[in-house]
Task: structure prediction
Amino acid sequence: MNAEQAWWSRYPAGVGRAAEPMPFRNLGELVRHAAERYGDHPAETLVLPNGMEASLSFKQVDHLSDAFAAYLHHGLKLAVGTRVAILLPNALAYPVCAFGALKAGCVVVNTNPLYTPRELELQLQDSGAEVLVVLDHFGDKVASVVPNTRVKTIVVAGIADFFPLVARSLIWAKLKLSGMLPALGLPTVRLPRALHQGSLHLAKEHLLPEAVTAAAITRDSLALLQYTGGTTGTSKGAMLTHGNLLANLEQIAEITRIYLTHGEETVLTVLPMYHVIAFTINLLFGFHSGSHSILVPNPRPLKNLEPAFRKHEITWMTAVNTLLKALPAEPWFRPEMTRKMLGAFAGGMQTHPSVLQAWEAFTGCLVIEGFGLSEASPLVTYNAAVKDGTRLRRTMAQVGGVGLPLPGTQVRIVDDEGRDLAPGEHGEIVVQGPQVMRGYWNQPEETARTLRGGWLHTGDIGCFDAEGYLQVTDRKKDMIIVSGFNVFPNEVEACIALHPDVADVAVVGVPHEDTGEAVRAYVVLRKELSVEEIRAHCRRLLVNYKVPTSFSFLTEIPKNAVGKALRRELRTAAAPES
Result:
């Protein structure tokens, strides 16, 4: 038995084999193949809170994304590797623009529409994005940011784009009257016009094919900058190639082939597609598998999901602990709404066993947990399941673990010296596989710290049980995860410290029943300051999920010999809470 065989011997038979490769050189080819296979079947349906909806077929998404690719490649003359930032919620424009950018050989920069202007500016500056695709709702935030970045072209999309003319006019008029479409104040091009220009270039290509200069895109080409946090508090762009993402899709296809029927499923896309989970699983894998994706642009309040559940028979969904806990408590949500649902795939944060059990008892639908991170495209492990009639059932007895490594993925538990630990011993989780990122964008030192000896050091703490199933028990890094979104303490601390009445501050994550974790700030004041005043200060600088939900005022922050805040002590401290 060689070293690799010995490593895999700890797992049940068949876990270690590699996934069946897809015959695609890049993600654009995957999109075209799905369009050829599923044609006029609905691919993406946007469902608004009032029940109005519009759809694009697989063929339409392919054609429109071709037009957007032509606009970028021929109209804007963008070179391969140019970054295109997408600042959109779940809307029909998202797959059109994301697939178009990928087909053009550009690099998608997923950007959270809820970012404050400060956060948006930092990400655009770091990525060097030259094109920004933005929903017209966010024009006021963009106007003050773009002049400080390398963005040369702003493409403006509307939530009503691709609706029939009458419905589109009604939606636009309502938004305009309600003041929800702020003036941008900068030169822009509307998405329909960009698509029209791209279509003209496509027509020229058809007439003069010998004049076409296609972008050379391989599996090694960079596809995505997915920004994530780190111990430094500086947001880092994980560089994911076409090959990384295709590898993760191959792995997901391998583990779901026994229960998902391609071309017959309907997936609820409520997690935002700018989040890596929904980007890979809902957008990319959903399109590849021929799943009809039901797009919900804003899940708050949760009643916004009611039309999606009432009008469509959902067969699978991705979710986080927050959603799984809150949905059964909604008065409109009924168990019969999940009667066709095979399972809910949970990630982004730990799913509390009590939430998992309550969801399954209420809906009869299995929650399948996994472990992943942006740096791994994102999926690393999964809880195995099999189809039992119209539902899924576990192939393992335990609840709350994150299961087995994906096909072709190796996971180890190591101590601080990199030595392998025995089952039951807790150490850092390190990962090796074809889905692991190339590195961090323009951050060689962070890359060297994270990718060592061919292994991705996740910063998460876990252990294997006797059967080889992974348990995640803690985080080595101080990252806080709020409803599946990363919050880096140093960033929140830096914002709070900008207040002139704050002398010192330290931020930690604390358990929270609804969001998994919440942000708590420990603050030393120069003079009296109310919780309301400091929270208002935070809200001006931070997106809502990063704003501390609680504050504790101390006379001194506990620190080590070199002056670093002892966050572990603070997490366990019984300081008075305001």
